[in-house]
Amino acid sequence: MDWSPLIISLKTGIVVTALSFFIGIWTAWKIYGTNNKIKCFTDSLLTLPMVIPPTAAGFILLLVFSTRRPIGSFLFDKFNIRVIQTWLGCIIAAFVISFPLMYRNARAAFEQVDKDVIYAARTLGMRESRILTRVAMPAAAHGLVSGSVLTFARAMGEYGATSMLAGNIAGKTATVSQKIAMVTQDGDYFAAGFWVIVVMIIAFIAILLMNIVLSRFIRR
Prior knowledge:
By secondary structure, the protein is an all-alpha fold. It has helices spanning 4-32, 36-51, 54-65, 70-79, 87-111, 115-123, 128-139, 141-157, 160-166, 176-185, 189-219.
């Protein structure tokens, strides 16, 4: 049994979740404090990958990171970094698609934090970084945990953008979602069913752990 699709999917999900967690919280906190006009525009831009087809996002990423384009050519010529048909491509594609989930959950959680507590912390002279880590994040923990789990599940199950950018190279970029699609096309429904069950078990465990963590917060 070749477990590489599961390993690649898990590694991608973990890395993307970590990146989305820190970048998503920082971005949500910054936008939380901006005026409405800037907030509306930036929020729409950051949420866009969540509503467009993943294949459309993958096509845009393919154009951006192609070695025939300025950004892709610069990365390859200066740093020998190739994105297309690499695991880095899996990470970038999954991050673009999954990041809005973390960002939206973090922003919604910050919106629920008592603004008077934030103002009081600023009045006491606390730095914004300490307000974020010591005041806002503990108060918004429910939303941050939910966003992290949803981001992990979305990153692990990403198919469209990943296929466009990273391809389906066995042992390198082939994820569980791609494996399911491939064996289904080949008519091997037993193998497809096996991988579906594996993904469902992992998703259930992730949701279960989220509920356990959230229930402990509620008891407090």
